[in-house]
Amino acid sequence: MENEPFLSLQSKPQLRPTVEDDHHGTPSEIQDNSQIQPPSKKHGYLHRCKTAPAMAVMRDRKPKTPQLPKPKSESSTIIRQAFFLLSLYLLLGVAIYSFNRDEFSGIETHPVVDAFYFCIVTMCTIGYGDITPLTPATKIFACVFVLVGFGFIDILLSGVVSYVLELQENMILTGIHIKKSQQGFSARNYIVDVDKGRMRIRLKVGLALGVVVLCVGIGTLMLYFLENLDWIDSVYLSVMSVTTVGYGDRAFKTLPGRLFAGVWLLISTLAVARAFLYLAEARVDKRHRRIAKWVLHRDITIQDLLAADINNDGFISKSEYVIYKLKEMGKIGEKDILQICDQFSKLDTNNSGKLTLPQLLENRL
């Protein structure tokens, strides 16, 4: 008990003042309880109980096991992995192609440019057919290269695009929060849903479709000027490229065109894929909002009462009602509830059905 800081301070005896008595020459205690006025108590003030443990002492308690850190976003890690693996992937493909040029068929412009162009077209799964492997060894290399590239594009580079979009969204949200108190309603309220902390899904779809039009437009202009195609063929090849269809009747044949394709195809195919993903998210979000609206506005029935009465006590508490509605909306599932209940049971050591401060302190000792 003496090791407890907040108990040892209260257990010390209080020293009372003494003076020398002129008549007896021995110290005598002065009973000045009546002379010392206690501090006046004002109504409305809260006074801390003397037996309550100090919060500072509670914070100083070290748990038995270290607390699990909060999961962090893996976007920065994905960025580093993407650039490293992309460089390694392209360097390996360029090296293999450059040393085996005779085993590939197609129009040649420059060894390095052709190798880079072939790697990008293969990685993006477009497959124009203008450069193809001829020997069994190069065909095996192409199979492995396209499989690795397909997974690489889907996992890592999609993470890069998501990271860039999230960074831009966070910058917009931060600017709106700063200027929210300085100005009233503005057009930005249509751009960002501040309450939910994200851009509105309709705006995301609009921006994604705008990116698709921009990628197709840039590709059309460059194909018209670099590949000397007419406007119809330029639009045709641009759309077939960004959608990774690649019929093969049209392809990039010039050196400047293949240099442009190496960068443009890598960016545009990812942007278009993300745009169609936003379209799917918009449909799912609309369906969720419709279900949530129906759940919140419908009348509760006897079957609902029986289903929501977890404790089987004949009535629904507020917590039971919230859990039941969240399950109806699809926000949580029975498995999630069971996991939370299991964690609560581990903390509730005496099976009292509630957590108290002494229990938490006991678990940390």
TrEMBL record:
Extract one GO molecular function annotation from the record: calcium ion binding
Q: Where is this region: Disordered?
A: 1-44
Domain EF-hand, chain residue ranges per copy: 302-321
Query: Which UniProt keywords are given for this protein, alphabetically ordered?
Result: Calcium, Ion channel, Ion transport, Membrane, Metal-binding, Potassium, Potassium channel, Potassium transport, Repeat, Transmembrane, Transmembrane helix, Transport
Spell out the GO cellular component terms annotated for this protein, sorted alphabetically and separated by semicolons. Answer: plant-type vacuole membrane; plasma membrane
Localization in the cell: Membrane
Q: Which residue spans traverse the membrane?
A: 78-99, 111-128, 140-165, 205-226, 259-280
Task: Kindly indicate whether the keyword Calcium belongs to this entry.
Answer: yes
Polar residues compositional bias, start-end: 28-38
Signal peptide boundaries: none
Entry's InterPro entries? 2pore_dom_K_chnl, EF-hand-dom_pair, EF_Hand_1_Ca_BS, EF_hand_dom, K_chnl_dom
Membrane topology label: Multi-pass membrane protein
The record ties this protein, via Pfam families, to: EF-hand_5 (PF13202), Ion_trans_2 (PF07885)
The residue ranges of the Potassium channel domain are 85-164, 212-281
GO process annotations (BP): stabilization of membrane potential
Family, as annotated: Belongs to the two pore domain potassium channel (TC 1.A.1.7) family.
Q: How does it assemble?
A: Homodimer.
- Write down what this protein is called: EF-hand domain-containing protein
Species annotation = Gossypium raimondii (Peruvian cotton)
Instruction: Identify the taxonomic lineage of the organism of origin.
Output: Eukaryota, Viridiplantae, Streptophyta, Embryophyta, Tracheophyta
